[in-house]
Amino acid sequence: MLEKNPNEVVEEIIEDTTSVIHPYKVLLFNDDIHSFEEVINQLIKAVKCTFEEARDYAFEAHVKGKAVVFNGDLSVCLKVTSILEEIALHTQIIT
């Protein structure tokens, strides 16, 4: 019954709306060329995140081979990838 837990329906609607608002994602791929420090500094510059968030993204890319580092409109994702690629990091924009 919907009336027993109305919050569950609201959460599903919010999640669906978020994917429509920010349909694009920037993937950062692991490489054996850049140091963690280089990647972290470039992530802070590109994504405007904290040191801790950048470190987590870099670690995820290192361990899993890739990490979603940004969600947003295509134009903003293009700017983010451009900044990351300034130091030849490998990125991809996906939907």
- Seen as an oligomer or otherwise, the chain set is single chain
Per CATH, the class reads Alpha Beta
Inertia-based shape:
globular
- Encode the helix/strand succession as letters: HEHHEHE
Measured between the Cα atoms of the first and last residue, the distance is: 34 Å
Number of domains: 1
pLDDT averaged residue by residue: 88
User: What is the CATH architecture annotation?
Assistant: 2-Layer Sandwich
Major sheet strand order: 2-1-3
CATH superfamily: Ribosomal protein L7/L12, C-terminal domain/Adaptor protein ClpS
The secondary structure category is alpha+beta
Helix-residue proportion? 55-70%
Topology:
Layout (H helix, E strand, L loop, with lengths): L5 H16 L2 E6 L6 H12 L3 H14 L1 E7 L1 H11 L6 E4 L1
Antiparallel strand pairs: 1-2, 1-3
Helix pairs in contact: 2-3, 2-4
Offer a quick outline of the entry.
With 95 residues, this protein is an alpha+beta fold.
Report what the structure shows.
The chain has 95 residues and is of the alpha+beta class. It has a single domain (23-94), classed as 2-Layer Sandwich (Ribosomal Protein L30, Chain: A), CATH 3.30.1390.10. The protein contains four helices and three strands; from the N terminus they run H-E-H-H-E-H-E. It has helices at 6-21, 36-47, 51-64, 74-84, and strands spanning 24-29, 66-72, 91-94. It has a three-stranded antiparallel β-sheet with strand order 2-1-3. Helix 2 (36-47) packs across helix 3 (51-64). The chain is globular. The chain starts with 5 loop residues before the first helix and ends with a strand. The model is unreliable at 9-18 (pLDDT under 50).
